[in-house]
Amino acid sequence: MPELPEVEVVKRSLEKKIINLTIKKVTINTNKLRYSLSKKDFNKIINTKILSIKRRSKYLLINLQKNYTIICHLGMTGKFFIIDRNKKFKTSFYYRLSSKDDKHNHIIFKLSKKVILIYNDVRKFGFIKIIKTSSIISNKHISLLGPEPLSKKFNAVYFKRYIVNKKKKLKDLMMDQKFVSGLGNIYANEILFLSKLNPKKNINKIENHHIKKILFFTKKILLQSIKKGGSSIKNFNSSDGKSGKFQQMFNVYAREGGKCAQTNCKQLISRITISNRSTFICKRCQK
Fold first, then answer.
1. What is the rounded CA–CA span in Å between residue 211 and residue 203?
2. Tens-digit pLDDT profile for residues 116-133
3. CA–centroid distance for 92 within its chain
4. In sequence order, what E strands does the chain have?
5. H helices within 168-229, ranges in order?
6. Is the pTM for the entire model greater than 0.85?
7. Any residues with CB less than 8 A from the CB of 7 and at least 6 apart, and which?
8. Which spans in the chain are helix H?
9. For residue 252, which of 17, 38, 122, 285 sits 20 to 30 Å off, Cα-Cα?
10. How far apart are CA 74 and CA 59, in angstroms?
11. Domains recognised in the chain with CATH numbers
C-alpha cells in the first residue's frame, strides 16, 4: 500500500499535469470501489476547474471550483494514468499503460486541452468521493488523523503528551494514524531501525532521547524517500514512468536474513510479527 512518500509523489505529479484544467466529462465503469460510486455526485463537478491538489496523510485532495473536492485513497493497487491530447501514453504511477489495463479503468475524467485522467484499480480497494471543500476538516476520513510527520506539530511536546498513560508497542504507535498520519509498515520499520529501538518496546518505557531520535529519523527518511521518488514495492512508478528508488536504500524492511546495515554489526535481520504485520529487526542493534 502506498505510504506518505508515494502519495506525495503522485500529488506532485498530478500538480504538473492537470492544475487549471477543466473537467468536461466523467465516465464511471463500475458501481463500486471500496465504497459505492454516485454518478449524481460526479455530475456535479462537470465544467469545474481543478484549482489545487493537496495531500493529507495517504489521501489525495483535488480541489475544484464551486466548493467541491475529489478525495481519493489509492488503497492497495489504485493508480492514475494520464493521456495527452495525442492519445499517447503520458504518465502512470505504477506501470506502463497497455490494452490489458483497460478492464480496470474504473473512472475516466475527460479534461480540457484533450487530457484524460484515468483512475485504475485492480483490487478496487481504493476509493474516490466527491465532497464539499468546506467540509474537509470534518470529513470522517480526515477528522481523526494525527499531525503530518513533516509538520512542526509533530514534535517532542506533542509526542510526550500523547503517550501519557498509554500501553502500546512502539511500532503500533508509529502505525497509528491518530498519532501521526501517513506512516505505514515500510517506514515504521526503517525509522525504528535507525533509531535503534525495538519495535516491541512498550511506549511507557520511551525516554526523551528516544523521542528525539524517532522525530529526527522520521523526518529524514520521509524526505529522502520523496526525493528518491518513493519506494517501488512491486510496480510503483513516478509520474514519468520511472521506478521509485528508495527501496534501494532499505536498511531493514524486507531484508530478512540479510546482514545488518549498521557499521560493525554482523547480526542478520530477523522477521517477527506485530499486530499481524511483518516486522524486520536487528536484535543486536534495536533495544
1. 10
2. 999 999 999 999 999 999
3. 16
4. 23-28, 50-56, 59-64, 68-73, 78-83, 89-92, 105-111, 116-121, 127-132, 270-274, 277-281
5. 170-175, 185-194, 208-227
6. yes
7. 55, 58, 59, 60, 74, 182
8. 4-18, 39-43, 156-163, 170-175, 185-194, 208-227
9. 122
10. 8
11. 4-135 (3.20.190.10), 156-281 (1.10.8.50)
* Of the candidates 248, 247, 283, 254, the residue with the CA atom closest to the CA atom of residue 266: 283
As annotated, the active-site residues are 2-3, 58, 277
Report residue 165 CA to chain centroid gap: 30
Ranges of the chain with pLDDT below 70: 86-99, 230-248
3-state secondary structure of 189: helix
Residue 227: all three cell numbers together: 526525493
pLDDT in tens, 157-196: 999 999 999 999 999 999 999 999 999 999 999 999 999 9
